[in-house]
Amino acid sequence: MTVDIFIPCFIDQIYPQTAFNMVRILEKLGIEVNYNPEQTCCGQVAFNSGYWDVTKEIGEKFIKEFANSKYIVAPSASCVGMVKNYYPELFHNTALHNEYKHIQKSIYEITDFIVNVLNVTDLGSEFYATVTYHDACAALREYGIKMQPRALLGKIKGLKLIEMEESETCCGFGGTFAVKNEPISTAMAQQKIENAIKTGAEYIVSTEASCLMHLEGYIKKNKLPIRTIHIMDILASGL
């Protein structure tokens, strides 16, 4: 099998190693990876900010760049959720109707792809630490993943997963929400991190780099005894 990979903005610009680790994992599973270097953004930031005309231009580019029969796999449920849930708002009954409908069916968040398409839960990963899991809003509510990441974490040698209180509560990032409503955003991050620290975990893990970036900023500023890590970086450990 050959899959196309979509690398979202936050990962491309801030956490590129997470993208490389996703490729390592796919190749470990015998999957050939195709990366189109012309790809940019899914348009989520512009869409959430109300710039729908700009979003449509970005979306048209996205659809044309992934116009083939392959699965599309990405390390972010929020970006995949954008394509699945909101491209219909932009492209229904347009010249790109059939193309967006095909992409809507073929694009997957990586943990969902591994568990539900490849039917794999044990990658042979090793990560000797205690972690707690953050259910990102878009991942849980827009894409619908919850057990897939936990199924993979549960098979990692040396890893202990302890659930935090209110794991489904927002971390406070919300894209431009963190900029426009800084005091509320900061308080939400504080609450999330306090719940994580109570578990005794060494790491907060999630599928969403944007959430982890937000939490990491609060952790570093306040010199707190916990770290953040993307699930791809854990799963690639020991391979």
Q: Could you explain how this protein is built, in words?
A:
By secondary structure, the chain is of the alpha/beta class. The chain contains 13 helices and eight strands. Helix 4 crosses helix 5 and helix 7 packs across helix 9. The protein starts with a strand and ends with a helix.
Helix-strand layout with pairing:
Elements: E1 2-5, H1 9-13, H2 16-28, E2 32-34, H3 44-48, H4 52-65, E3 71-74, H5 77-91, H6 97-106, E4 107-109, H7 110-117, E5 126-133, H8 137-143, H9 147-153, E6 157-161, H10 177-180, H11 182-198, E7 203-206, H12 209-222, E8 227-230, H13 231-235
Parallel strand pairs: 1-2, 1-3, 3-4, 5-6, 5-7, 7-8
Helix pairs in contact: 4-5, 5-6, 5-8, 7-9, 11-12
Quick recap:
This protein has 239 residues and is of the alpha/beta class. Helices cover 52% and strands 15% of the residues. The chain has helices at 9-13, 16-28, 44-48, 52-65, 77-91, 97-106, 110-117, 137-143, 147-153, 177-180, 182-198, 209-222, 231-235, and strands at residues 2-5, 32-34, 71-74, 107-109, 126-133, 157-161, 203-206, 227-230.
Q: Residue-averaged pLDDT, rounded?
A: 95
Terminal Cα span: 20 Å
User: What kind of sheet is the major sheet?
Assistant: 4 strands, parallel
Q: What's the number of structural domains? A: 2
The coarse overall form would be: globular
* Number of helical segments with 4 or more residues: 13
Estimate what percentage of residues fall within beta strands: 5-15%
| Topology pattern, helix = H, strand = E | EHHEHHEHHEHEHHEHHEHEH
**Strand order in the sheet with the most strands:** 2-1-3-4
